[in-house]
Amino acid sequence: MREAADSCDSIRRRTNAPIPSASKMFAILFLASGFLLARRMREKLRSSAPLLDLSSDEIAAAVCVLASLAFHLPRLLRRS
Q: Which stretches are transmembrane (predicted)?
């Protein structure tokens, strides 16, 4: 009986394995994109450039921030 419970637990652990790694990936993506956007905004403010004049890498960083928020927001709302 104990062997059946152990095999069931190991199956359950294996199926849940991608979620923590995806969560870490999206957290790193969020931090890196946020850092890039903050640094670029600071450069634009110093040079008096328009903030809404976006380059392709800034657009990609904004999309990454939105994707990581969309990934983490349901988990954050479920906890509270």
A: 21-39
State pLDDT tens for residues 35-53.
999 999 999 999 999 988 9
Domain ranges of the chain: 2-79
Measured CA to CA, the distance from residue 22 to residue 20 in angstroms comes to: 5
What separation in angstroms does the CA of 7 have from each of 13, 15, 16, 17, 53?
10, 13, 14, 16, 56
CB 33 within 8 Å of CB 68: yes
Q: Is the pTM of this model over 0.85?
A: no
